[in-house]
Amino acid sequence: MNIGKIVKSNSHVDYAGQVLNKLDTGQTPQPDDYMFAQFVAIPNNGIETIGVIYNSLLINPEFGNYGPRLTNPSETNAVFSPDYINEQGVLIGILLLGWRSGGQNHQRIPRVVLPADSSIEKMSNEEMHAFHRDQNGQIQMHYVPHVITHAGQLARQLLLTIIEQLINVLPEEDHARLRVLERTLVWQQTIDQF
Q1: Which of 5, 96, 142, 181 has the greatest count of CB atoms below 10 A from its CB?
Q2: Which residues is 94 bridged to in the sheet?
Q3: What is the tens place of the pLDDT at every residue in 9-34?
């Protein structure tokens, strides 16, 4: 499902996307489609760049515009500016984790630069599961140090949320490895608070 488009980048691995609204598409994404830790794919020239939503930002240019008014905003827009567009929106921060091409998943920093207006697609649980398997079928999360380095204060919480999701989609034999990583992250988070 297409949930947005790339609008800018903050670095080679940190992109911002704008969630589609009713002016962009007939089927607008629901808040569940662009939640924290949602995996996304950005197709580009036969390669799907894989990322995770790690941040969000609401845009509302009307905030703080409390001057005196003679009419309400809907009346003003219809009379004075019929071409007025709603400039409210949601931006999502996407941290790139790897890519998928030729049926193989790679959990490394992608070399490609994503062009503006590239579509952002929500990954299904099955696609997320496949991204976390290496060629031998073993679970992989090579991006953990990358997330800790680039996701800032949200890094550990992001990884804990990803682990929760993986436990729900991966077979039980993988849970023990995930629980070890989970306990380590919780311990580090607890130590950092002191």
Answers
A1: 96
A2: 15, 53
A3: 999 999 999 999 887 777 889 999 99
Distances (CA, A) of 132 to 7, 35, 36, 150, 165: 27, 19, 18, 20, 12
Rounded Cα distance between 127 and 104, Å, is 12
Amino acid identity at 181: L
Nearest-angstrom CA–CA distance, 163 and 179: 8
Pairing status of strand 39-44 against strand 47-59 = antiparallel
Per the CB < 8 A criterion, the answer to whether 131 and 91 are in contact is no
pTM: 0.85
- The separation between the first and the last C-alpha atoms of the chain, rounded to the nearest angstrom, is 42
Which phi and psi (to 5°) does residue 74 adopt? Answer: -65, -40
For 160-181, b/e burial (b = at least 16 CB within 10 A) is: ebbbebbeeebeeebeeebeeb
